[in-house]
Design goal:
32 strands; 27% helix; alpha+beta; 25% strand; globular; eight-stranded mixed β-sheet; 768 residues; homodimer
Chain lengths: 768, 768
């Protein structure tokens, strides 16, 4: 294939193909669907953080008019009712114990939501209360009550081995990841200074605009599920196992999804909806409230102890990092998140001697799973805050310290993994320049901060397939398993197809995502769709192109390699080009037929790679903040925020900027506002009044998002993944700016006015 | 590919995969669907057979509460509002004239059907009556009123040319097909006897249990249509042209269809539903009543003059056949049906000199289009009735006469077409034996009759694609454009996949038919799906098999050609075989991924073939009847009916028998009961009370259906098409048996008791 000279559709900020549909309210989400005979489900949830389930009696509820059936533990025993993203520790409804406030105990199906709601109160449940653990500290304390009475702990030891994960048997630690590189003890001995700090990250929620919702319909031995999810194939596999069906008998359809951020990965509301439909043989809709989504999945609170040894002139020599991730009552993706937190704790720096230990810990709180940043957010907060502490303590400029230690392009992150695929200094310098780093703030209580981070792409081994179907008029339909969660793949992937086939965007349509007919895709996650699915889509389009050119060669009587595509026509060595529809009609002998192209991408495996598979690409985020702290109120004013991301090649620059800005805003929420607050095992703020997410008025007063395009990505036209990078540095960039402004270092998030005000008061009264 | 030794799933009478769903009422048909915001359409139809449209004023109707909009000719001018299967002579609603009683004049969209119905009465329409033509005779009379004021007539002259189709310019003849072979004048001169007879076939309706129904939803520049149709891709193409959209922006989904028989081919209710949705931007359901379906599409009434020259000992020497097909007010598929009637008028016999002229004629009656048998039914009634007349007149046994003239296997039907692909004598002798042909009836008023016919496969150049998607557990989903109209392709095609992939039927699912994702298929018609789509499906399954074997070779470390599939496992040179799921997981390195296989079939083109493309296969029908005529009432009692069909290889014998029996029952309806009766241009019996279709009590008292399996078909495992063959001989077999019983030859159908009784009286009174 010859190198394309210039891009015409890819690389442009084309308007979103789903834009009009969405802003006019016509776009169909799962909640918009109605099926004939559809009934409505409500879930009875545990009011206690930890209790043995003595009795669940649904007879009174079932007698209520309008109630069709009630699902309890008695119904599910013939199913493979246990499930989970990594461990099968969760069940459709609670069987033996409840493990957090909100744990599903039973579910009612009724002709309307009101009847279902009313029936919840008629289910007789008897609990035997057990002592709960609701924090990492409580959970890992010796003799702590056990959330799960399991005897084993899964451990992954990589690199230089040490430690004895067996010690966690019979504790609340459900997963352990250890990684060693070099001899960390010697590393610290050789260091001029060793710094040790402990950072904490709170429990936060995804808060998608659309809470979890699904519709399940069992017909005979065939289950169809419409759901708001990010990984329909994975969900299909889980449901098939649960209901003991071949994969071909489970069909998952994904309408538009109103935000995911990882919260709609793996199995969520679907088993309850499906089990009710299995029992009642009717279509079942289960739509969670915002409060219930808060009680379904969250981000892992973390405690990160980080110890770093440096030379006097600021070279990093050794790092020890001990991470505890609170995965809540069920593991969900917690072990994978924990593994990634551990692996990503090295940061973008050259550190010869490393020891990382990461633990996932059960507590009696809402389960924590995948969430934009996937383990990186917590460790970046720690290591990038500490970088400033080190700079400050050594009296080196924070930018200089980073530049001195950043990995170079082509250098190993760890042996066997993909070498660093971009110039880490480039983005950092870009951010520093935009922040006018060298210039001191002109007013008091103002300060600047920088942060820089790197993450490998994603938590799963990636396989993505795509199909492109060119109809007899030359227009094309794309079948892709990437979910349109709002992040824009319908547009970007359509641009890839349009580019390869020299079509305009309005000739491309994206088919409804339906596991029956859409090629397999692992999941929409890890900033990887444009790269991973992008390659599959590009290959599918190229396959169509090949068929089209071969047909054209026949029809036009020219050699394939003399033909090119341009604006819907095949151009040969002479003439004005032949439109695709004419080629196809002549080739098939009728205005009929089509070309179907297939494309596949899969990650490589490598025994040398620490995690078994070298990363598809490195996602890099650079951020810089300038803040002003109000000494009277503790309010942090975000004067300026600068973000840079390495996108390789932006398929749609405007969408990339939107993703980056959205990521930053997420980070602002985590840094300044968000925290799920527990008291006596009860979540106090599961709603938008008490749990605050940032809105437009919380945008930085000046906001820059830079896309760095060097075509250094493995994706189509040199694209790389992006969308998480913007989020990762925010907390430490702001934390560093606050420290720079008022001389106070915060170790815990969020930096709410009360917390900042108290710290200012404490500093004043201590006279420092 | 090695020859498979024995079939395990294909060739068995497996239970229908959709059987339970259908008998329990869970199967979803278009009428079962509900969409949020869906509104309901009703059609205002012309009360006059022929009139100029002076005024259509919908203002009063639009003012009625509940009415959302009214579609009139004023709305559609910006669209390509003219459409038609062959000519664009029909419009979404009438523009200049109405041409039959029932012609759509306007359509109302309302929040419910009652409001829509009421509003129909408030549309002010002013007509200027025109004289109608309602029969072939009226239509072809000199100076007849013109249904369409067009100046041209499409003519196809094939073989030896003669005639001057230009003479039909400016008449109601809209299509002319002429075919000549040898010199028919000399043929008649050389003949010892020349027989000339005129036969008539009445207007009948498909009477699908499910009347026409569709739902259309315009969203932005994207149209989705759910409809009960047999050719979704063709429909998509028409709708895209009508609304000026790329094919990728029109999506047609076909739920289960409750019977089609050709009546749901091409464009029917969909343009009105789509235009209303285009105007109102809401989902629109248009469900016709039984009476409205009667006013939508029918079979062509025909007049067939057939002149045959024979030698004294019964060899056919020459045939001249003049066919008039009444295509009603719009051409629909009429020209194609007429072409086929002409081409098929030669029958299964060797006739050296032939001249055929077939005409499609417009009349002011309901349009006639595709209908099971597609032009064959009318001409078979003529030529097989005449064969008995010839036998009688020459004093030769009717079976002997046929055997003497039947084409042999391998002989040309016409030069350039596929040679006859089966032994025509085999089936005829089978039927004769089952009828105990040589034995004279033991009682008076009893008689036996035989008939035999042959038809080429279908009216369109056939292209069919299919995809098979094998998931990581080894189960498979089939994507096929063949519509499940009740004829069983879901089961038969699943059997083909199961056979090729050594799976059980419950591991195969058939995906919803959706033009966005399903590979292209021309149409579900012409008894061709098992052969044509069957081959595409088989090739798709073989493509999966190839990929699976290559993966297995890698995983198992064996050579591909040493591997075989058996019961869900890959067997190599040793060991017990490896299950597919293990092969796939090992190959992809994860319980993920899948194999997607593609298959394509397309007909050959040939300039030598009379119709441009040699037939895919020959469909043959043999039938024999024994009847008793009640001299007092004229009632024909069907004592016995024997049918034989050449199926090549029955993929599902029970389904084939069901198709054959269903075909025969259709034929019984046409022969004994069915006729649409017109008076003053008004259809008098558009309902099941006055229009009688046969029911279970009209089954023959003894009924045999023989499948002849010689694996001589081009389809999977040697299959051929079937399903129409059973129908074709019925009328003449019964007509011949009646003639044999009471010595009266009927030239017109149906053979109702009054008609038979009157003929018996006439014969009595004439004393013959």
């Amino acid at each position: 294939m010859k190198k394309r000279q210039a891009l015409t559709v890819a690389g442009t900020s084309a308007a979103r193909v789903d834009g009009v549909e969405k802003v006019t309210g016509r776009a169909v989400y799962t909640g918009d669907l109605e099926l004939p005979g559809m009934a409505f489900a409500k879930v009875l949830r545990s009011p206690l953080p930890h209790a043995r389930l003595v009795k669940v009696d649904a007879r009174r509820a079932e007698g209520l008019p309008g109630v069709l059936t009630v699902l309890t533990r008695d119904d599910i025993r013939s199913l493979n009712y246990r499930y989970g993203a990594t461990y099968k520790d969760q069940s459709i409804v609670a069987v033996d114990k409840v493990r957090y406030v909100g744990d599903p105990v039973a579910a009612v199906l009724a002709v309307d939501e009101a009847a279902a709601d009313e029936a919840l109160g008629l289910i007789d449940v008897e609990y035997e209360e057990l002592p709960p653990v609701t924090s990492i500290e409580e959970a890992i304390a010796p003799g702590a009550p056990l959330v799960h009475e399991t005897e084993s702990v899964k451990a992954e030891l990589r690199g230089v081995r040490y430690g004895a994960p067996e010690r966690f048997k019979g504790t609340n630690v459900c997963y352990y990841f250890g990684y060693g590189q070099g001899d960390v003890t010697t590393g610290f001995e050789k260091s001029d200074c060793v710094f040790e700090d402990v950072f904490r990250f709170p429990k936060v929620q995804h808060y998608s605009l659309e809470p979890h919702v699904s519709i399940a319909h069992f017909q005979g031995d065939r289950l169809t599920v419409w759901t708001s999810c990010q990984d329909p194939f994975n969900l299909r596999d889980h449901l098939a196992a649960m209901f003991k069906l071949p994969l071909s008998r489970v069909r998952v359809i994904v309408p538009y999804v109103g935000g995911g951020y990882g919260g709609k990965l793996y199995v969520k509301t679907e088993p309850i909806a499906a089990a009710l439909s299995w029992k009642a043989r009717r279509p079942v809709k289960l739509a969670l409230s915002v409060e219930e989504s808060f009680k379904t999945i969250t981000r892992h609170p973390a405690r990160v102890r980080i110890k770093t040894g440096v030379t006097r002139d600021g070279r990093l020599l050794a790092r020890e990092c001990e991470i505890y991730m609170d995965t809540g009552a069920y593991a969900d993706a917690g072990p994978r998140v924990t593994q990634k937190a551990g692996y990503r704790a090295l940061g973008p720096y050259r550190i010869p001697q490393v020891r990382v230990e990461a633990h996932a810990v059960y507590t009696n709180t809402v389960p924590a799973g995948a969430f934009r940043g996937f383990g990186s957010v917590q460790v970046t907060w720690a290591y990038e805050s500490q970088m400033d502490l080190i700079a400050e303590r050594l009296g080196i400029d924070a930018l200089e310290l980073r530049l001195k230690n950043l990995l170079q392009k082509g250098e190993d992150y760890t042996p066997g993994d993909t070498p660093v695929d971009c110039d880490l200094k480039e983005g950092l310098l870009k951010v520093a320049r935009a922040l006018d780093w060298k210039r001191k703030p002109t007013k008091p209580y103002r300060g600047k901060g920088l942060a820089c981070c790197i993450k490998d792409a994603g938590g799963t081994f990636k396989i993505a397939g795509a199909t492109v179907k060119m109809s007899s008029d030359g227009s094309a339909v794309l079948l892709t398993g990437t979910v349109e969660v709002g992040q824009g793949p319908r547009t970007a992937l359509s641009q890839v197809v349009a580019e390869e086939l020299a079509l305009s965007l309005d000739q491309i349509a994206v088919a409804e995502l339906d596991t029956d007919v859409t090629p397999y895709d692992v999941s929409t996650s890890a900033s990887s769709s444009t790269t991973v699915m992008g390659l599959a889509v590009q290959r599918a389009a190229q396959d169509v192109k090949k068929q089209l050119l071969q047909a054209a060669a026949k029809v036009m009587g020219e050699k394939v390699d003399r033909l090119t595509l341009k604006a819907g026509k095949v151009h040969g060595s002479k003439g004005k080009g032949v439109p695709y529809d004419k080629i196809i009609a002549d080739y098939f002998g009728s205005r009929a037929g089509e070309f179907i192209g297939k494309g596949l991408y899969r990650d490589k495996k490598s025994k040398r790679a620490v995690l078994g598979s070298p990363t598809t690409f490195w996602e890099v985020g650079w951020g810089g903040a300038e803040v002003e702290v109000d000494p009277e109120t503790g309010v942090i004013r975000l004067l300026k925020y600068v973000s840079a991301s390495d996108v390789g090649k932006a398929i749609n620059p405007m969408q990339c900027e939107g993703q980056d800005e959205g990521g930053v805003l997420f980070g602002i929420g985590h840094t300044l506002y968000e925290e799920m607050i527990y008291q006596d095992g009860q979540l106090l703020n599961p709603n938008l009044i008490d749990y605050r997410v940032p809105t437009f008025r919380h945008l930085p007063e000046e906001f820059h998002s830079f896309l760095i395009e060097n075509r250094n990505g493995p994706g189509p036209f040199g694209a790389k993944g992006m969308g998480e990078g913007g989020l990762l540095p925010v907390a430490s960039a702001i934390g560093n700016a606050v420290a720079n402004a008022v001389g106070i270092r915060f170790y815990d998030l969020p930096l709410t006015p009360p917390r900042v005000w108290r710290a200012l008061r404490a500093k004043e009264s201590s006279g420092t």
